[in-house]
């Protein structure tokens, strides 16, 4: 009998899935339900053997999508019986300080995840809906929660606390959590594997540069510092997010322009970053195109973005006390030679080099032959990490 594990990533109007066969860890199906709750039907796009197909599906809720997905797996003969699904792993945005790793979702842990919703009000409630939909439709199948935050729970106190009154940590739980943990952990593991080294023996900086972006310093296989903070707004400049700015700008705008908290939040989350600086787009491809044509705002946005990545790399190399591997991943990190090159420019004092030919042709290792640090492109795959974690937990 087959053993299949499904990875689920539920968004406010979407549900993304990937189905893997174990023990081979072979991906056999993936798909995406979109426009959930926006009308009486939703759109499903899926791929079974590489080809892409789509259909319209009746239903309005995440639960309708899950029911349809299970029927679809039977209809497409991906499973002969639903008991072949041995586990479902769910991406969960926030595990707070409580979840130091992934967990099988029982009543108690579900309650705990719900109680952390104030930390990720746009995400945790939706992730919970996904878990509950599967619990209702596959009651005998273990559900596993894989948290975006848990990889960073190994950060030392001096790196996760903010220099504000300590009681705000004690009373309100204000601290750095960090996000993209599943991605940072996955690419670090894959990088060590492809170098034929033990993860525990490497000092690694992982740059997850997508529409959202974060950088993580990894030592002994553990996250010791990361650039996102209490929320995913902190750290490097992003597609529409400002990243780190002087916090007084918030109060200044409130006083000077009578902007409300909601307006300031909108400005920092949706109207800043590439989009805000360039006035062109939040999409790195558009910025690159305008940069190549010499558009001054695009040049500025590009220099600001790469400059901040570079500063973070330097700071994290200092934190790690050295560096063996520098990883670029996610949409920008994997696909933009110019951003990799500019972010590494001038870092030869840390042993960081970029070979132009290797970088432009997207080789796995883009550093120069004699470069001390292995600069690598490692495609991220959060779904694969989610099914791996799920498999580990259900096999115990
Ligand atoms: P993600 O959030 O990981 O899906 O990444 C999205 C970001 O990756 C967007 O800013 C895209 O513009 C960027 N991206 C995707 N493909 C490319 C490419 N070929 N060159 C530059 N940026 C890219």
Brief description of this entry?
This protein has 396 residues and is of the alpha/beta class. The chain is built from 15 helices and 13 strands.
In words, what does this structure look like?
With 396 residues, the chain is an alpha/beta fold. It has helices at 62-75, 107-115, 124-137, 157-160, 166-172, 181-195, 248-257, 261-270, 273-278, 284-292, 296-320, 330-335, 337-344, 356-360, 382-395, and strands spanning 3-11, 14-22, 26-34, 41-47, 52-58, 85-92, 103-104, 143-147, 203-209, 213-219, 222-226, 325-329, 374-377. The strands form 2 sheets. Strands 5-4-3-2-1-6-8-7 form an 8-stranded mixed β-sheet, sandwiched between helices. Strands 11-10-9-12-13 form a 5-stranded mixed β-sheet, sandwiched between helices. The relative contact order is 0.11. The mean pLDDT is 97. Adenosine monophosphate (AMP) binds at residues 210-211, 239, 283-285, 288, 330-332, 335-336.
Core attributes:
magnesium; globular; cytoplasm; nucleotide-binding; 396 residues; alpha/beta; ATP-binding; single chain; 21% strand; binds adenosine monophosphate; EC 2.7.2.1
Topology:
Blueprint: E1 3-11, E2 14-22, E3 26-34, E4 41-47, E5 52-58, H1 62-75, E6 85-92, E7 103-104, H2 107-115, H3 124-137, E8 143-147, H4 157-160, H5 166-172, H6 181-195, E9 203-209, E10 213-219, E11 222-226, H7 248-257, H8 261-270, H9 273-278, H10 284-292, H11 296-320, E12 325-329, H12 330-335, H13 337-344, H14 356-360, E13 374-377, H15 382-395
Parallel strand pairs: 1-6, 6-8, 9-12, 12-13
Antiparallel strand pairs: 1-2, 2-3, 3-4, 4-5, 7-8, 9-10, 10-11
Helix pairs in contact: 1-3, 6-15, 10-11, 11-13
The structure holds adenosine monophosphate.
Adenosine monophosphate binds at residues 210-211, 239, 283-285, 288, 330-332, 335-336.
């Amino acid at each position: 009998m087959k053993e299949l594990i499904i990875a689920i990533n539920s968004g406010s109007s979407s549900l993304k899935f990937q189905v893997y066969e174990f023990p081979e860890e072979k991906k056999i199906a993936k798909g995406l339900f979109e426009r959930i709750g926006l009308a009486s039907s939703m759109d499903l796009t899926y791929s079974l053997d590489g080809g892409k197909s789509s259909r319209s599906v009746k239903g309005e809720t995440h639960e309708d999508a899950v029911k349809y997905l299970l029927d679809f797996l039977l209809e497409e003969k991906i499973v002969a019986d639903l008991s072949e699904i041995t586990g479902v792993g769910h991406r969960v945005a926030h595990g707070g300080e409580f979840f130091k790793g992934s967990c099988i979702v029982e009543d108690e842990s579900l309650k705990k995840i719900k109680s952390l919703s104030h930390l990720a009000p746009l995400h945790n409630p939706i992730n919970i809906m996904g878990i509950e939909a599967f619990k209702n439709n596959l009651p005998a199948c273990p559900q596993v929660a894989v948290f975006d935050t848990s990889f960073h729970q190994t950060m030392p106190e001096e790196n996760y606390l903010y220099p504000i009154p300590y009681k705000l940590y004690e009373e309100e739980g204000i601290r750095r959590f960090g996000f993209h943990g599943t991605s940072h952990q996955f690419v670090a593991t894959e990088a060590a594997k492809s170098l034929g080294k033990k993860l525990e023996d490497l000092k690694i900086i992982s740059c997850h540069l997508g529409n959202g972006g974060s950088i993580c310093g990894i030592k002994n296989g553990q996250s010791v510092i990361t650039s996102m903070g209490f929320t995913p707004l902190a750290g490097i400049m992003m597609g529409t997010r400002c990243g780190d700015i002087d916090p007084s700008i918030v109060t200044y705008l409130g006083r000077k322009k009578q902007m409300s908290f909601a307006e300031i939040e909108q400005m920092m989350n949706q109207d800043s970053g590439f989009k805000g600086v360039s006035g062109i787009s939040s999409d790195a491809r558009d910025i690159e195109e305008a940069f190549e044509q010499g558009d001054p705002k695009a040049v500025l946005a590009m220099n600001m973005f790469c400059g901040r990545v570079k500063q973070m790399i330097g700071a994290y190399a200092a934190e790690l006390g050295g560096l063996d591997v520098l990883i670029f991943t996610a949409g920008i990190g994997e696909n933009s030679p110019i951003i990799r090159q500019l972010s590494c420019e001038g870092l030869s004092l840390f042993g960081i080099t970029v070979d132009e030919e290797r970088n432009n042709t997207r080789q796995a290792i883009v550093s120069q032959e004699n470069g001390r640090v292995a600069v690598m492109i490692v495609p991220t795959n959060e779904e694969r990490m989610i099914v791996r974690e799920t498999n580990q937990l259900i096999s115990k």
